[in-house]
Amino acid sequence: MHHDESTPPTDFTALAVSRALDNVADGGKPFACLIVRDGEVVVEAVNHVAQTGDPTAHAEIRAIRAAAEQGITDLGGYEVVVTAYPCPMCLGALYYAQPDRVVYAASREQEGEHYEDGNRLMTLATFYDEYAKPVEERALRAEQGSVEDPTAPFRAWSARHAD
Ligand SMILES: Nc1nc2[nH]cnc2c(=O)[nH]1
Q: In this protein, which residues make up the domain named CMP/dCMP-type deaminase (predicted)?
């Protein structure tokens, strides 16, 4: 495992696991996320899917949103510490937020030995594979609608932002 000596990831990883355990004790799912800068936790969040019914209320998404509410809209200079390697939704959100590094406690494989989310379209094991498939082969059915000018919004945006 590679990490900077100045910011050993193990301490915060243990904290993320501890927060996830607290969430399970509160009736929640076993996930927590910390956003760390210069050795300090600036944001923390736990999964609230069970508490709210919002299927997107994963720990990482909630942490990124809480950061934005504090004015932190780009995670450059920050580390994200999580209970388990992010799911594809949260990984996508992290690519948008652009932290310096993600540190995770459990791998997807370790998580999958003990936990399954319960979803009609995918399992923990198949979710990443979905993205590598052509659109028409994915479990989530998608069809292109017929509209005369589907690229109009993008051309309008480009015209507005051209210099
Ligand atoms: N890493 C992570 N994986 C999940 N799978 C389901 N919910 C979550 C979450 O909040 N975090």
A: 7-122
**Are the C-beta atoms of residues 2 and 100 closer than 8 Å to each other?**
no
User: Distance between CA atoms of 58 and 142, rounded to whole angstroms?
Assistant: 24
The domain of 95 spans: 12-116
- Among protein residues, the one with the nearest Cα to ligand 1's atom 4 is 87
Ligand 1 contact, 32 CB (< 6 A): no
Give residue-wise pLDDT tens across range 76-128: 999 999 999 999 999 999 999 999 999 999 999 999 999 999 999 999 989 99
Helix (H), strand (E) at residue 68: helix 59-69
Our answer on whether the CB atom of 86 is closer than 6 Å to any ligand 1 atom is yes
Is the ipTM, as predicted for this complex, more than 0.85?
yes
For residues 25 and 23, what is the distance between their CA atoms, to the nearest angstrom?
5
In a domain, 150, yes or no: no
CATH number at residue 47: 3.40.140.10
Number of structural domains (the chain) is 1
